[in-house]
Inverse folding.
């Protein structure tokens, strides 16, 4: 019995190593294009109009399946919305609250302090409504996926027909930039999927760019502050270094 167990263990280990050395199609690397975003670089900042358009795309298209559980309505002030606009926006959502005096949970209109509600009550409901697939929360998606906003934008525009020699699995769609190329999420963006409030033409490229920018903000809302603080610190250190050098020259000027 021990000999059989030893043989089985060696065989399993061998198969595991062989599988690890032979990358599967789902794990193969896909080259992601590098797009130009307004927030890139040391001096890059978020463009509020891009953020507002991206939020509009999320609300009108993505929010039916994906949540933003880490984003509160009051955080949208960073996008340029006024306090009254945020209150009106929050009131459009129904939020579970409680318990009341009878110990029951109840629904009420949202307020700025609330987080943006998820489209599902729990993970099981999400899977049941999506054929077993769980639509991930998008709050940190730009940080969780390799390639970040570049990956998100590429994924949104990467849908197409599979090669002639490829047969898609049931319920899957072809995407040039998804690892393995077969993805359960169908194409969600098309030209004029939304009508932007600022009059910008809603091309597929524009919508995907704005949405990727918005999701970068949800993942790192303090990016602008971080960059401004870093630049201020560097400038301070440069000035401080110059002053210390001048003091050193002054102190030791009479000594040889």
């Amino acid at each position: 019995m021990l000999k059989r167990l030893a043989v089985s263990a060696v065989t399993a280990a061998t198969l595991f190593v062989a599988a690890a050395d032979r990358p599967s199609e789902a794990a193969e690397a896909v080259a992601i294009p590098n797009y130009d975003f307004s927030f890139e670089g040391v001096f890059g900042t978020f463009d509020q109009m891009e953020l507002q358009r991206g939020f509009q795309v999320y609300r009108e298209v993505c929010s039916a399946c994906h949540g933003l559980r880490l984003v509160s309505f009051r955080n949208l002030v960073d996008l340029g919305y006024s306090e009254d606009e945020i209150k009106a926006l929050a009131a459009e959502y129904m939020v579970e609250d409680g318990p009341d005096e009878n110990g029951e949970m109840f629904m009420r209109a949202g307020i700025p302090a609330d987080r943006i509600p998820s489209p599902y009550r729990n993970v099981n409901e999400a899977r049941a409504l999506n054929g077993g697939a769980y639509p991930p929360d998008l709050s940190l998606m730009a940080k969780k996926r390799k390639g970040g906003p570049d990956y998100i934008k590429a994924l949104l525009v990467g849908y197409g027909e599979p090669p002639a020699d490829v047969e898609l699995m049931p319920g899957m769609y072809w995407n040039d930039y998804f690892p393995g190329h077969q993805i359960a999420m169908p194409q969600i963006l098309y030209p004029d999927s939304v009508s932007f409030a600022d009059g910008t033409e809603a091309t597929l490229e524009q919508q995907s760019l704005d949405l990727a920018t918005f999701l970068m903000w949800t993942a790192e809302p303090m990016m602008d502050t971080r960059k401004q603080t870093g630049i201020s610190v560097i400038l301070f250190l440069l000035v401080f270094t110059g002053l210390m050098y001048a003091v050193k020259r002054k102190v030791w000027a009479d000594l040889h």
